[in-house]
C-alpha cells in the first residue's frame, strides 16, 4: 500500500489544482507541460478572462498562472481584482502574474491586488519549479491558519499563529504580520501595537509602520499617524497603501486639501488603481476642485471599462462634474466640457440600459448641462422626456430627487424644487448626510462659480459685522443675497445686522427690511439646521415691532 502522506510530501505539486490563463495557445500548452513534468495533474487552461473567472466561481483553484496581457478585454490585473473582490480565491490559493511587460505602471497597478509573485517571460521549467516549489511549501505549512481566516474564525487563527511562531522560524515574518492583522481585526489594538513596536525596534519594516499607522488612525491619534505615515511614504515612495492611509488621517484631522494632494501623488505613481481615482474624485468634489474632480472621474470611468468595479454612478458623477464646470461658461473650454458631459451621459444610458433610474438621472443632468450653456429649449426637451415618469414615482430615490431639484432650480422652477426638497427632507429626516445636501441645495441653488462668490461674500460680511462695521456688513450680505436670495444663513445674518443697527438708531425701516428677509424663509423645512435660529429671530422681531 502506498503512503498517501509521503507521496504528497514528495510531490507537493500533485494534490493541487491549477489554472493557466493566457491568450497564446502555444504558451498555455508549454506551461501545462512544465507543470505536468513537475508532478501536477489537475490543470485547466483558458485563453480569456471571463471563462477563467467563471471556472473559479464553481471550482476551487489552488494555483493561478495568469498573463497580464490577455488581448482585447480584461487583463491580468482585472482578473486578480475580480477574483479578490468576489472572494473566489481562498487565502491558501497562489496567484502568479505572468508577463513579458515590466513597466512600472503595470507592476504598480497589479501589485494593488497583491499577487503572490511575478514571473517574467520567457519562462523555463527550472524557474517555474523553483518559484512554485517555495510558494507551495509555504502554502502547505500555513494552510491551517489560512483555513481558519477564510472561515473568519479569528480567535482560532490567532492561537495557531502563536503556536507556530516557535516551530516555524522560516515563516516568522509572515506569522507576525498575520497575527498583528488578526489582533487588529478583533479590536485588540494593544497586542497588535506591541507586535509592530517589537518589529520596528529591530528593523524598520514598511508593513509594521503601516500597521502602526492603522492603529493610530483607528484610535484617532491623527498627529502621530500623519507624522509616521509621512515618513513612511518619504522612505518608501512606492508603498501605495501608506498614501491611502495618510490621506484618510489628514481628512479626518480636518485637512482635506492636504489629503487630496497625497491622493494626487499616489494616483500619479500608480495610475491604474480605479478605487483610488474614485476616492480622489470624491475628495476633490468636496474640496470644490472641479477640474481635479473631473479628471479623476474621467480616469475612474476609463479604468472601469473592463473592471468589476465599473458603475453607472461613475459616469453620472463625471457628467455632473462636467456640468458644474461648464455652467455659464460658453467659451471653447466650457462648450467642450458640456459636450463631453452629454456624450458620457448618453454612453451611460447605452452601457447600463437595464439599470433602474439610469435614464431618468441621465436626462435630468443632461437638462442641466443644456441650461448651463443657455440652451433652454434643449434643457426643457431633455427634462420633459422623463418628467411624467418622475411624477409617477412615489418614493423618489434621494440622490435622483436631489439631482431633479437642482435641475428645477436651474430652469427657474423654484417652487416645485422647494416642494420636492421639503418632501424629501421629511421622508429622510433621520439621514443627516442627505439633510446636509438638501440644506446646501436650498441655500445655494446656483452654479459653481456663483456659490464660491456668495460664500466669499458671506465670510467678508461676517468679518465686517465682527469689526463693528454694520453698514459694510449690510452691503456685503445684500450683494451675496442677490446671488442666492433664499440662502438661510445669509438672510438670518443680514437680519441680525439690521436688528443690531436698529438698536442703535430705532429706524423702523430697518425692522421692515429684516421682516422681509425673515419672510423669505417661510418655506424653510423644520429639519434645516438654521430653523431654530429662524424661529428665535422671528420672535425677536415680533417683540421689537409690537
Describe it.
Residues 1-8 have low confidence and may be disordered. The chain has a 5-stranded parallel sheet with strand order 2-1-3-4-5, with helices on both faces. The chain is elongated. The chain is mostly helical. The chain has helices at 4-10, 25-38, 49-58, 76-85, 104-111, 125-150, 154-164, 172-185, 189-202, 206-218, 222-235, 240-252, 256-269, 274-286, 290-303, 312-326, 332-351, 358-372, 376-392, 398-410, 414-427, 432-443, 448-466, 470-483, 488-505, 508-519, 531-545; strands spanning 17-21, 42-46, 63-67, 94-99, 117-120.
Secondary-structure arrangement, i.e. CATH architecture of the domain at 4-138: 3-Layer(aba) Sandwich
> How would you characterize the largest beta sheet?
5 strands, parallel
Which secondary-structure class do the elements indicate?
mainly alpha
Helix content: 55-70%
CATH class of the domain at 4-138 reads Alpha Beta
CA distance, first residue to last residue: 107 Å
Unreliable residue runs: 1-8
